[in-house]
């Protein structure tokens, strides 16, 4: 989907709300060597098990942790931003 940065910014961005692996091209498990198991570590941000999280490449090489329902925003300079649902809707509206 295409979204516009508020208020009335002419720059349009491509944004994807991420819920599970496969929702975003190139997403990966946050920890590549991670094997989901009982008693999984909980995310300190959303409190969901880490097995439900993704890893997205941002700033070229770093992997950023993506919580389910986070938004992945393609910025015009080629970088990628990850933000939560509240932050996203404060900054962007559907174009
Ligand atoms: Zn999380």
Explained architecture:
The protein is 7% helix and 35% strand. The chain is mainly β and 95 residues long. The protein has one domain (2-94). A five-stranded antiparallel sheet has the order 7-6-2-1-8. A hairpin with a 6-residue loop joins strand 1 and strand 2 (12-17). The longest helix has 7 residues, at 85-91. The model has no long low-confidence stretch (mean pLDDT 84).
Concise synopsis of the structure shown:
With 95 residues, the protein is mainly β.
Number of helices: 1
The secondary-structure class comes to: mainly beta
Q: Evaluate the radius of gyration.
A: 14 Å
Order of helices and strands: EEEEEEEHE
Strand order of the largest sheet: 7-6-2-1-8
**What percentage of residues falls in helices of 4 or more residues?**
under 10%
- Approximate shape: globular
Average pLDDT works out at: 84
Low-pLDDT regions:
none
Strand percentage lies at: 25-35%
* Extended strand count: 8
Q: Which hetero ligands occur in this complex?
A: zinc ion
How can the largest sheet be summarized? 5 strands, antiparallel
What's the end-to-end separation, in Å? Answer: 9 Å
């Amino acid at each position: 989907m295409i979204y516009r940065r508020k208020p009335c910014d002419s720059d349009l961005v491509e944004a994807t709300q991420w819920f599970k692996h496969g929702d975003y091209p190139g997403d990966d498990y946050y920890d590549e060597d991670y094997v989901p198991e009982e008693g999984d570590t909980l995310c300190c941000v959303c409190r969901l098990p880490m097995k439900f999280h993704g890893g997205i490449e941002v700033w070229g090489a770093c992997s950023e942790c993506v919580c389910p329902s986070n938004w992945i925003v393609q910025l015009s300079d080629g970088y990628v931003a990850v933000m939560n649902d509240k932050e996203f809707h404060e900054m962007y509206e559907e174009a």
